[in-house]
Predict the structure.
Amino acid sequence: MLNFTSAAIVVKDAKKSAKWYQEKLGFELRSGEGHWITVAPKGSPIAFHLCGEFYPLEPGNTGFSFMSKDVSKDEKALRAKGVEFTQPTKKEDWGTSAVFKDPDGNEFWIVQE
């Protein structure tokens, strides 16, 4: 149902950090638009979302995200199992997402492919 896609890492300067990951670890830049800067090892399905000073993580936000073919459908299925959502499925300019939490309040994103 859900495929793990990214984990957030809080950094001081996302662009500078992306350059470090590329030069020192050989990672590739996956995206570099606005605050959405991601890097990953070549061929890896999982990327790091580099969250700089302009995009700090809120309390409870783990920065982990999952990809889904249909966020709304997956939200309904998870709610039926008792999963609590802190943000219902929402369509924005950049895409469709929802946020759920575990019993300890840790939040996880679901983003539509």
